[in-house]
Amino acid sequence: MSNILIVAPHPDDETLGLGGIIAKLVARGHSVYWLIITGMTESGGFSKEQIERRNQEIANVANYYKLEKVFRLDYPATQLNYSILGELISKVGKIVNNIEADEVYLPCPFDVHSDHYFTFEAMKAITKWFRYASIRRILCYETLSETNFNLPDIGKGNFVPNVYEDITPFINNKIEAMNIFASELGDHPFPRSQKAIESLAILRGSECGCKYAEAFMLLKEIRHE
């Protein structure tokens, strides 16, 4: 069995990006860990009620998925920048080595939100095998309302999937987990809506020959067999 680390700039990114895979991995007996980079703070303009509600949502989602452990770094949301990259790399590296992560899922570096970009920039350090020898596979996931809102004519690149996972038996798990983040959901055509989530899974499924799928960009894979 493998140790899987899911890196989310914000709570809900993990479910939007790979909620089906998380449920699938846990069902297969793998140990899945959730690393949340940012958090709500009063100094960032969030009320105590919002912070308490978000903390409960995180706990409920972790329990729903039956995750091994949740790591929270609680950097202020929307404020990640180059000045904290060294510190962020150090904290993330300790977590990766502590759990001896075999696989890591990262946000796409081409996402609109700057928190996603700087999370990815920090996580590039884990591609060094001599510092993080346990890792054998690294993939990027797509996040509705962030990955798909990138402007390709001025952006640095685009999300181009080359790995697909059939999540047909787990699409309801993905939607149910997202419903826990009630404050983040809206009605169609809002991008974080149940209809949009299901539609993207249908689209990715049509690209690979199954009913529902999630798509990823494989960044690195090391095979020893």
Remind me, CATH topology? Answer: Rossmann fold
Nearest-integer average pLDDT: 92
Radius of gyration: 17 Å
Helix content: 25-40%
Derived from helix and strand composition plus strand pairing, the structural class reads alpha/beta
According to DSSP, the number of beta strands is 7
CATH architecture: 3-Layer(aba) Sandwich
Feature tags:
225 residues, Rossmann fold, 20% strand, 7-stranded mixed sheet, 7 strands
Can you describe what's shown?
With 225 residues, the chain is α/β, with parallel strands linked by helices. The chain has one domain: Rossmann fold. Helices cover 37% and strands 20% of the residues. The chain has 6 helices and 7 strands; from the N terminus they run βαβαβαβαββααβ. The chain has helices at residues 13-27, 48-65, 85-99, 114-123, 171-180, 194-208, and strands spanning 3-8, 31-39, 69-76, 103-107, 137-141, 163-166, 213-221. A 7-stranded mixed β-sheet has the order 3-2-1-4-5-7-6, sandwiched between helices. α2 links the parallel β2 and β3 (69-76). α1 crosses α5 (171-180), α2 (48-65) runs antiparallel to α5 (171-180) and α3 crosses α4. It is globular and about 45 Å long.
Write the layout of secondary structure elements.
Elements: E1 3-8, H1 13-27, E2 31-39, H2 48-65, E3 69-76, H3 85-99, E4 103-107, H4 114-123, E5 137-141, E6 163-166, H5 171-180, H6 194-208, E7 213-221
Parallel strand pairs: 1-2, 1-4, 2-3, 4-5
Antiparallel strand pairs: 5-7, 6-7
Helix pairs in contact: 1-5, 2-5, 3-4, 5-6
